[in-house]
Design brief:
single chain; alpha+beta; Immunoglobulin-like; 5-stranded mixed β-sheet; 4-stranded mixed β-sheet; 3 helices; binds dinuclear copper ion; Cupredoxin; CcO_II-like_C; Cytochrome C oxidase subunit II
Length: 176
Amino acid sequence: MQPIAWQISLVLMALVAFGFAFVAINSGRRQEDYTPLQKSAYRLRTRLFWGLVLVFGPAMIYTLLELPYDAARANAGAGPVQVVEATGYQWRWELSQDRVAVGQPVEFRVTSADVNHGFGIYDANLHLVAQTQAMPGYINTLRHTFSEEGTYKILCMEYCGLAHHNMLTEIRVGAQ
Ligand code: CUA
C-alpha cells in the first residue's frame, strides 16, 4: 500500500471509531424533547406532498387523456373477428387473405417458415400502425382494427438476410 493511502485509511478508521464512541457516550443521556422538530418535519413533508400532487397531478391527468391507447383500442370495432394467417419467408410474406373490412377487428396470426422476421403494418404515409414478431415455431397473435380504408403495407422490420428490404406485401382495407 502507498504510504499516503495508508495514512488516509488510518484517518478514516479514526473518524469511524470516533463516531461510534460519540454515539455510545451520548446514548446514555436523557431523551430530549424532539416534538417541535418532529412537527416542523411533518409540516414540511405535508407541503412537499401537496407540492408533488400539484405538479404531477395535472401531468398525470394530461397523459391519461389519451386513454384508451391504440393497443387497448385494437380489440374494439364491430362485427366478427377477421382472421389473417401471415407467414414470413426469406424474403416474402404470405397472407391467407389480402383484403379486410374497415372498422372490424382483424386478428393476424403471424409465424415464420425460416428465420425471425418483423411483421409491421404501415399506413399510406408509412406510419407504423401495428407490429409483432414472426418467429419460426410460434404463432404470434396481433389484433388490430383498421379505422381507415386504404392500402396498407406490410414490411419486414427485422434484418433477415440479403433481400430483407424486398420483404413487403400489401393488404387492402375496404368497406364492410
Ligand atoms: Cu424478413 Cu427482414
